[in-house]
Amino acid sequence: MSNNTCSRINRLVSHFQHVKPTRKRNANPSLQCSPYAKMLASPLRQCKYHRKMFPSALLLRFGLGRDDKINKISAAPEIVNTSDQGTKYYVHLRKKVLQELQPNGFQPIFRGACQHFDKDMEQRVEQELGISAFQHLLSNRTVDLQHVKDREWQSEEPLQCILVWRHPSSSLPFCELDHRVGDQLVPSYDVRQLWPDKITSMIDADDTREIVATGVKRSSATVKLAMALWRCHQYYQHPSSESVLR
């Protein structure tokens, strides 16, 4: 290596030794507000039912603890109440999977460490998913929506999702992915199925509209709600249905 080359390298090294580190650039704002990006970026865990790795946000986590009422080691879903203690077990967040674990299908999942699996586990998980989603509902992050026509709404705000509180049809799908607000496609959730006991308190008694819905503003503050609602959708989803995360 020539002296000139060595001299240039030394000058470069000296220069970078005195360069102060710059602030890290903020992550892409659109990704910060995306529940799908957040879910896909969650830590990978193995589904003990499928024996495959999935982002943990798409899985249902179980812990084990002694049930004093029956004096047995029992499985408990960790959705609302979570614990860092003990070994965790994950299965795909689908109602059909829980059905397959009854009455004794849970034994291979827990490798003999579990003595009791609640026969009402489907309803228990369903209830906790609903509670988890409602905990993330922020009233200052919602806007009233005007219904234009079938699956089309009017709002000046970019939205994460739509929450339907009142509708003439009693048999809407829990989630529809193709509702339109301007040029934006937004998932719509029939929350009557999820929070039946909350409807009266969430609708103005003087509101006589046939269809009442609120929009959840698109922001980093509403990502957790959008994720929780999508997890509910995953749970209810028929196994033959297609998922954008599959």
* Biggest pleated sheet: 7 strands, mixed
Tell me the span between the first and last alpha carbons: 55 Å
Derived from helix and strand composition plus strand pairing, the structural class reads alpha+beta
Number of helices: 8
Oligomeric state, counting identical vs distinct chains: single chain
| Uncertain segments | 240-246
How many β-strand runs?
12
**Mean pLDDT score:** 87
Shape summary:
globular
Helix content: 25-40%
Alpha carbon gyration radius: 24 Å
Q: What is the percentage of strand-forming residues? A: 25-35%
How are strands sequenced across the largest beta sheet?
6-12-9-11-10-8-7
The helix-strand sequence is HHHEEEEEHHHEEEEEEHEH
Descriptive terms for the model:
246 residues; alpha+beta; seven-stranded mixed β-sheet; three-stranded antiparallel β-sheet; globular; disordered C terminus
Folded structure, characterized:
This protein has 246 residues and is α+β, with helices and mostly antiparallel strands. It is 28% helix and 26% strand. It has a 7-stranded mixed beta sheet, covered by helices on one side. It has a 3-stranded antiparallel beta sheet with strand order 4-3-5. A hairpin with a 2-residue loop joins strand 7 (146-149) and strand 8. Helix 6 packs antiparallel against helix 8 (223-236). The radius of gyration is 24 Å and the shape is globular.
